[in-house]
Amino acid sequence: MTSDIPLNESPLGDSAAEGSSSAEGSLPNKVPEGTSAAEGSLPNKVPEGTSAAEGSSSAEGSSSAEGSSSAEGSYVLEAKEVGRDYQQGDSLLPVLRDTNLAIKAGEKLAVVGVSGSGKTTLLNLLGGLDDPSAGSVTVCGADWQGLGVSARAKWRNQHVGFVYQFHHLLGEFSAVENVALPCLIGGASVAEAQQRAEALLGKVGLGDRLQHKPSELSGGERQRVAIARALVTSPSVVLMDEPTGNLDPGTAGVILDLLLTLNQTLNISFVVVTHDPAIAARMDRQVNLIDGQLVELEAAVV
Length: 302
Fold this sequence. Notes:
single chain, alpha/beta, six-stranded mixed β-sheet, four-stranded antiparallel β-sheet, 28% helix, globular
């Protein structure tokens, strides 16, 4: 997704963005050691000797992503006949089988199902954090399995954001530094990364918390920072695993309203794994993961 996030709009009103244009201090000029893909929307660790800003033409399989800045057809994310098995002793444990899914630009999809049904496994496959045992997953026209390590990390950084039940913020970094990291990893200058981070934090109502570290923020504020981090690179799709699961009902409602507003403002697709029927009911579509397969549910009347 190539469109920039507008810097002069805030879904929470002008007051939400106040103070977001002049952060004190400066952003770190390098990626912290040991940063991994599981921490928010950061891509896989950059291979030694390879700059995050460098192109991925030398990576194995990187050609399959070239020229694919938009999804084939009208879908930004598509899973076709995906299966995932895990070795359990001498036998295979099938978690997903013949799973099909297609997400349009700006669409909001809820994935529901009982605990242990494979919802998180599905998200990992959709985000290229794991490979399917069968089938394929494409994001903006690129098949994850056709990309080498460097190319996959770069494509994920550009097109996929992650929000987890736990915020996974880096404790030694401020809010603006945490949000700017995906931009820095993607090759943006410090000035550009800081500008985009400040703009997103303004949008989520934290324009006056730019220099606060995670320990100085409330649970709801930390999750807002995690949401801003997932959106800062203008991804095509954001994958969320119980994004309000650790919040009290009042704060969860505020975060949900914020997500829906950002979806409308930025036209970014959301795939939300949730046990909360109130959250699922406010998505465009709902699918239930049963016996390793997705079953479309009728739209709820909100």
